[in-house]
C-alpha cells in the first residue's frame, strides 16, 4: 500500500518519474499551457450591499465561465488558516498513521485516505494523494474543530450562492437548493496533497475534468496550480489570498438545462514545493434523482440532459461509463 502513495514515490525519485505519471503530449502542461498569462476569472465582492448586482454577477459568471472567485465572503482569515493547518497536519503524520484512515478495499464510500480515485482511459495516474471526508452532516471521520468552525461560516456562503443562482434562472431563491437535496445536501471535503515532482512539465496533479457535484467551493494555497480551459487553451487561474474559488458542477449544469456551465479544469504540480488545495463539494443524496428543473423546460426548451440518481451518475463518471 505505501509504495502506491505519491508522497512516498516523490521521495524516491530525483530526476525522473514513473512512466504511469507521464502524460501524453496532448496533456503535458509544458506543451498545453498558455504561458505568461493568468486567467482573470470574474472576482465578485459578495459584501456589496447591492444584492441584485451580486446575483447578476454570479449568474453571468456561471453562464460564461462556470467559475468565479468571491472575496469578502465573511469567513475570517484565521479560520481559513486553521482549516489549512488541519490538512497539512494530516499529511505530515507518519505513513502508518495515515494508513489508519485509508479507504478499505472494495468500500463503496469515498471517504478516507487514498491516491487513485477514478479510472483513466490511458491508465495514467495523477501526482496527488487525497483525504476525503464529509464535514456536513457531521462526518464519519470525525476530527478537528477547525473543520467545524469553517463549516459554521461556510453555511452562509452556500446559502448565498444557491440563492443567487436560483434567481439568475428566474426561479424562487430556494428552488435550486431544494432540487439538490435541501437540508440533506452533503459537504464533502477533499484535501489534495501534491508533493514536489521532479518533472512537473510532464505530470498533472488532477487530470482535466468537471466536478460531479452541484457546486464546489475551493480554498487554494499560494502555490500556483489550478488551471481552467478557455476556448480550447489551458490557463493558470490567478491566485487571490483568502478568496474562495467557485466551480459550477455537473449537477448545476443539468439542473439549469445547460444555462450554467460546468467548468473544465485541471491541476499542475511544481518541482520543489508541496501544493495543497481544499475543495468542498456540495453533493445531493445518492438516491436523489437530478434532472433539468421542471420550470426551465418546455416545448421550445426541451430537456438536454437525462434525469438520473446522483449516485448512479457518479458511478458512471468515475468508471468512464457513458451517461
From TrEMBL:
Coiled coil spans: none
Domain Fe2OG dioxygenase: residue ranges: 184-284
Cofactor(s) it depends on: L-ascorbate
Listed InterPro entries: DIOX_N (IPR026992), IPNS-like_FE2OG_OXY (IPR044861), IPNS-like_sf (IPR027443), Iron_ascorbate_oxido_reductase (IPR050231), Oxoglu/Fe-dep_dioxygenase_dom (IPR005123)
GO biological process: flavonoid biosynthetic process; pigment biosynthetic process
GO terms, molecular function: dioxygenase activity; L-ascorbic acid binding; metal ion binding
Keyword Iron assigned: yes
Pfam families to which the protein is assigned, alphabetical: 2OG-FeII_Oxy, DIOX_N
Metal-binding keyword on record: yes
Keywords (A to Z) from UniProt: Dioxygenase, Flavonoid biosynthesis, Iron, Metal-binding, Oxidoreductase, Vitamin C
Family statement: Belongs to the iron/ascorbate-dependent oxidoreductase family.
Protein's name according to its UniProt entry: Fe2OG dioxygenase domain-containing protein
Organism: Salix brachista
Amino acid at each position: 500500500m505505501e509504495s502506491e502513495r505519491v508522497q512516498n514515490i516523490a521521495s524516491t525519485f530525483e530526476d525522473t518519474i514513473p512512466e504511469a505519471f507521464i502524460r501524453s503530449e496532448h496533456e503535458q502542461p509544458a506543451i498545453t499551457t498558455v504561458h505568461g498569462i493568468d486567467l482573470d476569472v470574474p472576482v465578485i465582492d459578495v459584501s456589496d450591499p447591492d444584492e441584485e448586482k451580486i446575483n447578476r454577477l454570479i449568474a453571468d459568471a456561471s453562464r460564461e465561465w462556470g467559475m468565479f472567485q468571491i472575496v469578502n465572503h465573511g469567513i475570517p482569515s484565521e479560520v481559513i488558516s486553521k482549516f489549512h493547518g488541519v490538512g497539512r497536519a494530516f499529511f505530515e503524520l507518519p505513513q502508518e498513521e495515515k494508513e489508519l484512515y485509508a479507504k478499505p478495499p472494495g468500500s463503496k464510500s469515498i471517504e478516507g485516505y487514498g491516491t487513485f480515485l477514478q479510472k483513466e482511459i490511458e491508465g495514467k495516474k495523477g501526482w496527488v494523494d487525497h483525504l476525503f471526508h464529509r464535514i456536513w452532516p457531521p462526518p464519519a471521520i470525525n476530527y478537528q474543530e477547525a473543520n467545524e468552525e469553517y463549516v459554521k461560516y461556510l453555511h452562509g456562503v452556500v446559502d448565498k450562492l444557491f440563492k443567487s443562482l436560483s434567481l439568475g434562472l428566474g426561479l424562487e431563491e430556494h428552488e435550486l437548493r431544494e432540487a439538490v437535496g435541501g437540508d440533506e445536501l452533503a459537504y464533502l471535503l477533499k484535501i489534495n496533497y501534491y508533493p514536489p515532482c521532479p518533472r512537473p512539465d510532464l505530470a498533472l496533479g488532477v487530470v482535466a475534468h468537471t466536478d460531479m457535484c452541484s457546486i464546489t467551493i475551493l480554498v487554494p494555497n499560494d502555490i500556483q496550480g489550478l488551471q481552467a480551459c478557455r476556448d480550447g487553451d489551458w490557463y493558470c487561474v490567478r491566485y487571490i489570498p483568502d478568496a474562495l474559488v467557485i466551480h459550477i458542477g455537473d449537477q448545476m449544469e443539468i439542473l439549469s438545462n445547460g444555462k450554467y456551465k460546468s467548468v473544465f479544469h485541471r491541476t499542475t504540480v511544481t518541482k520543489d514545493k508541496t501544493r495543497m488545495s481544499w475543495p468542498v463539494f456540495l453533493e445531493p443524496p445518492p438516491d436523489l434523482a437530478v434532472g433539468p428543473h421542471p420550470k426551465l423546460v418546455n416545448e421550445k426548451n426541451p430537456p438536454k440532459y437525462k434525469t438520473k440518481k446522483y449516485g448512479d451518475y457518479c458511478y458512471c463518471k468515475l468508471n468512464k461509463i457513458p451517461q
